[in-house]
Amino acid sequence: MPVRAIVRRTLGLAWVVPALVLVGVFVYLPLAQNLGFSTLEWDIYSGSQEFVGLDNYRRLLDDPVFWSSFGDNLLYAVISIVFQVFGALVLAALVESVRSERWRRSLRAIYFLPSAISLTVAGLLFYFIYEPNLGPLNHLLRAVGLEQFTQAWLGQESTAMYAIIAMSQWQGFGYSVLLFAVAIQRIPSEIYGAAAIDGVGPIRRFVHVTLPLVREMTGLMAIVTISGAFQVFNEVMVMTGGGPNNSTQVLGTWLYRSGFVRNNFGYAAAIATVLFVITLGVAMAQLWVTRRRRVEW
Amino acid sequence: MRSRALTTFAALAGTLVLAGCGGGEPAKAPAADIAAAPEFSGTLSILTKFAGEPLSSYFEDVAAEYQRMHPGVKVELIQETDQSIKDKTKTLTASDALPDIYFTWTGNWAENFVRGGRAADLTKVIGPDTPWGKTFGKAALSAFAYDGKYYGIPLYNNGKFMGYNKAAFEAAGLKVPTSFEELLASCAPLREAGYEPITFGNKDGWPALHYLQQLFAYTVPSATLQADFSPKTATLDHPGYVTALKQFKTLVDQCTDTREGTNGVLYSSAQEKFLNGKAAMYYQEILEFANVTDERELKPENFGIFPLPVPQGAAGDPKAIEGAPEGYLINARSPRVALAVDFMKFATGAENAKTLSAAPYGQPSTVIGAVTAETSGKAVFEGIEMVNQASQLAIWLDTVTVPEVADAWLAGGEALVSGGSTPEKVLESVRQASASAK
Questions:
Q1: Which residues of B292-324 are buried (b: 16+ CB within 10 A; e: fewer)?
Q2: Claim to verify: residue B210 and residue B244 sit in the same structural domain
Q3: Nearest CA of chain B to the CA of A146: how many Å?
Q4: Contact B1/A84, CB-based, under 8 Å?
Q5: What is the number of domains present in chain B?
Q6: pTM of model > 0.90
């Protein structure tokens, strides 16, 4: 190999070394360390760390809150798929079918606006919307004669998780709509033109033209949504902290509570590892889908 | 939701890892002699629980004055709130980065730092027979004593009382209830008079535990209760527990407007309702009394307090009051322990103690003579007098026992409020948590 090529290659490597070091130190090293912590019984006060092998993972199997947290993540994923994938796709198709460009832009902006608000702020906002005494939701229900439906939305085990998920849909919906809108815009107008000449109505056009041609984006969004549903943390912490009676715990918050409230840092690390395995699996599926489902035209 | 799998996990894991850095070190002996003459140089770090108005300026002023007296010393304040200091302290502990002086509750909370060798033994300087120790009430000093050694510097006392609106009671034709049953009976007339009888917010879980701990102190004999706090000796089979849990549930259902939805209400929202004159009673700490001011609907002259009334036939201690002093520990591994002791002597000096006890802070100092009706206000003075006369202080349930058991009580209290569980099931879940924490 010529000397110039070697120098160029070495220089090229030198450029990426700082980034590699940063990623190594701040992403991969914590991952490896966390795996180590999950095999320890760790007393943060005395600093003693006792190796317990897989005991923390065995404890997970018998922990009802771990399983209910996992169930809440699943519930989150299912509802998010319905609203943020299928619901958002339908709405994006409707928005893109509006003839006026000005209206299309306005609608996209209106739907996207909640996504510009941070989850923590949105969580606080909805905490006050749901507040049983002063919250506007209960006031609204009373104003329209539906007093029997007023609730302490976040204060009851039966409604708290759904109330949090509803907020999350409100916050993330517009982002999905925007992505689907972009995907729909990429579909050549000639295809829609041909469908119109063939006398295809709007619903059949959506089913037989739009849906197959945004298949790649739909698959991607489904996976991103599932992955996101297993990483839920901020909204739960802000709105309920996992209560009442652990009814809104998700894996992220149960991890936090196990470590920082119950002082079981080794056990918390085991939950973190399980969470990592789940999200890694989803991320790999995401990579696979993006390779396999590309539609060319 | 955006794709953030690796980064979010890394953030969560990183938090644990941050907590883990340096955690493998065994407990070390104190780095310096606490009784040595302090060297007035360097930076002294302090973790306080006084973030937010009006409290934050207390330590800021004390630190500024101390720096003025000792120009070579820089005082670095880390001020946290009641909620955030729990996570902050644990993260700093696990990463072996505790400041020179740090806040503590009594009970299991402080005991963990003592057991882990992270709190300096201050017996030589603050023991009851030392000049500094004699400036404090004995009970306050003893609250931070373990195995005959004194570790904590009690800054202020605290106790839980039912605050009431005298005008509301007058409008309903009521007198201060003398039994728990009378308290329950007072709720209907107060509601008829246009007030929420007892305002209560349990979003964070611990407010329910405050009711429960006071009721446990009344309904469970002291020796049994103390034994049940430690998983090693706990049986949690005294019938007084179920009785107290039922009494608490009855109070929530009969006397609050939010009833089973109380878990959705912030503690501070309930406090606001009381201060706005819309609720007749609010169970509160002495530290909150200073919120009743002339600017609020509830005026100081209409504000009264009484201990949560004792249920009839209770088997426990009717003269116990829930509460505990709160204070500070000195990091045993700090190279500046003598300077830290000197700073805390200054912070608990007579003048600063009076300042702390007076408005706008209203934190009743544990220093003898600092709390008077003139300096602290009538309600704070009355509260402290009752705390001083109590047969014993029942330490907060979420700090007196181990975290797993405290967490089971927290979840159980919420379940009881929402109706998601029965008193018997709540007690069983706590028994299980205690058994697994042995």
A1: beeeeebeeebbbbbbbbbbeebebbeebbbbb
A2: yes
A3: 17
A4: yes
A5: 2
A6: no
